[in-house]
């Protein structure tokens, strides 16, 4: 349990950790000694945005600084005025050639496969230049903010240069999470909130809800059903505990599923097909389990045994798919390694407990069989099979 709480705790606070890594944001000295009133460290890709906003003429002087850029790489920073993400981005692109020379231009991105061709933007850029200093690429620009607006969606990126032209960027989490909003007026105060934090926050929320529900509570609820009912004193309590845990897991799981659908519909152009399909299957199977409860034959009904097998079968399918999808989700979200390790730790603990209880259950079952034989009971079969054949003793 401690590990689960630890995992929850981390994911919930991870946003603030990421966005508070302001390190050298303010202390950086530009080669031209320019001083910028505001600086935010962007949440991914080691980038910083420095700026001065001029309310009198609605312009902003920016310096976009991307650290750790080698030769034959491009970096870009963009405002997306009418949308979000890559399509529609009004980008400033700096291309570092193989000899280290830096070429800078603007590009209005019209689609996913159109590349970063040179074109004019939907707003004026009276000043644009770039340099590369100690591996930092800095793009200096003055933007005439469109429509007098001050709050925009922004996106930034890095990719390879081949044959002097920008190539497609990687699709690592770093590359997919480099979107957010920027407010040129309140930026200074909002820096701690983390630009792009909202999407990251929603992804983390989605991850926590689903990891806890499908990935931890569901297996725990199944263990209650399988191992508690062997104890006579646990009748019929195990049944209600099982239902309570699974109902809670299902409730949280549906919330997590909803956040996943929303994330999917919001991230146009990015598809995690198998993660999505497994998620939809999980929701369907989980819902089936809820209805199965309502359609359950009476304990002494002759078909009850088949219902039990069906219910456990679907249950095990849900658990294996749930755990699989938590791992797929962890790979997509790509938090620090320790969170994957923590989840693996939780699973190993659950598995270890299950192995012990499994052994103990068989011990009890065999012992009871023996006692039944010695006492000459015909045996009502209540405990004859460890697992599903609990006929008369199962809570109705
Ligand atoms: C906008 O105003 C600022 C000062 O208010 C000035 O320094 C800057 O040159 C102006 N920019 C343009 C593009 O007119
Ligand atoms: C570096 O390469 C670019 C073309 O990629 C060329 O225009 C430029 O002259 C080169 N600079 C030097 C110093 O060789």
TrEMBL record:
Put simply, this protein is called Cytochrome b561 and DOMON domain-containing protein
Ranges for domain DOMON come to 45-159
Localisation = Membrane
- Kindly report the protein's main subcellular placement as a broad class: membrane
Signal peptide as annotated in the record = 1-22
Transmembrane stretches, start-end: 207-225, 237-258, 278-295, 307-327, 342-365
**Species name:** Tagetes erecta (African marigold)
Disordered as annotated region, ranges: 374-396
Q: How does it sit in the membrane?
A: Multi-pass membrane protein
Give residues annotated as binding heme b: 206, 242, 275, 311
Q: Classify the source by domain of life.
A: Eukaryota
